[in-house]
Amino acid sequence: MNFHLFYRTLLTIAIVLSLMACGTVSEKRKVDYKSAGVGARTEPLTIPPELGSIETSSQYDIPGESEATFSKYSREKELDASVKTTNLLPQVPDIKVGREGTYRWLIVDRPAEDIWPVINEFWMTKGFLIADQSAITGIVETDWAEDTSKNVVTGLQAWMEKFLPGLSSNPERDKFWTRIERLPTGGTEIFVSHERMKQQVSITPNIREIRWVDSPRDPNVEAKMLYELMLYLGLSDAEVFASGISNEVRPMSTIISVDLPNAKNALLVSGSAPKVWDRVGIVLLSIGASVESRQEDKGLYLIRYHDPDGKTLKKGLERLKFWKDNKITEAVVYQISVSGDAETSMVVVFDENGEEVSVDTAKRILSVLQEKLG
User: Fewer CB under 10 Å: which end of the chain, C or N?
Assistant: First the structure.
């Protein structure tokens, strides 16, 4: 038999089997990510000077073949690789789960200085690279990654995967934002926000187009990562399960209204002002806005972004398309105000000086916030 014909036949069979395997994921399977590595930075978190004495373990390698790993960095810095996971924190911390609507977060009785270096290692053990991080704002952003636990291969397909890796690739990519917030009591709150893009294939007689589209927020994906983080911080599986963090939540909209009688440039959101403030901050980062300053006591964000043609902010993988020949325009500064009571919050857009902006401009920004907060 002609070798090329035999090869094409096997390839066709493998592709068919890979398509048949889609959607056969066990709910009990743990998430296992492999980073796409697009535009990612592999440096560990920059620990502020006062945190320099904290030891960091080097035993956690990124799954895969990447040479730029945290363990490699650690060896170059001649850190002790014998430090064990349980030594990341002196003692297993007391952890509580905060809840508001479909959002959940962790309340840990440890200072932010102890939690900050652990967050970086956690994401790297899950197979992520770090795309960005800021010790000043307490925010860590991961790279886009594929959940390989969804790639179930058996039989001939598994055999073909050895020779043609990638046949069982999952047509989804995930990334996460983590924010740590100091508490007046000396503890720390940990928030995790998730974004997912799905591959969409359009086939016409002459063109086969593949593009990435936003997927609706799934609070249960965030809860799964918080579950894993609680385990990583030292709690037993039974303790984490008892916390109720794994209880399934039905996604529901938190948006009450967009157009208010006395505030046309506002978004009314279900939730207390402090928690909506945190959610808005993470969403602003996820849509590519540059947050210039934060005034939490006043509920204000000062953001800067490019809006050359009146379209919405770039979202998801669109921000990775650095090869496109886009016209560079001057960024515009806006204020995002979050205010409210224990149950409802209002998000309002102002210009740099705190004056009202046009309805069209406000709605362009609020429509993106509405999509991500809902």
Answer: N
Q: What is the pLDDT of residues 354-373, one digit of tens each?
A: 988 888 888 888 888 887 77
CA nearest neighbour of 308 among 286, 333, 327: 327
- Is 330 within 8 Å of 339 (Cβ atoms)? no
pLDDT tens per residue across span 331-355: 788 999 999 888 888 999 998 999 8
- Topology (CATH level 3) of domain 21-251: Alpha-D-Glucose-1,6-Bisphosphate; Chain A, domain 4 (3.30.530)
User: In 3D, which of 129, 174, 150 has the Cα closest to residue 317?
Assistant: 174
Question: Pairing between strand 344-351 and 332-340?
Answer: antiparallel
Sheet holding 332-340, edge to edge: 255-257, 266-270, 344-351, 332-340, 300-305, 290-295
Residue type, 44: P
Give the contacts of 367 (CB within 8 A, at least 6 positions apart): 312
Dihedral pair phi/psi, residue 96, rounded to 5°? -115, 155
Contact yes or no for 112/105 (Cβ under 8 A): no
pTM (two decimals): 0.60
What residue spans define the domains of the chain? 21-251, 253-374
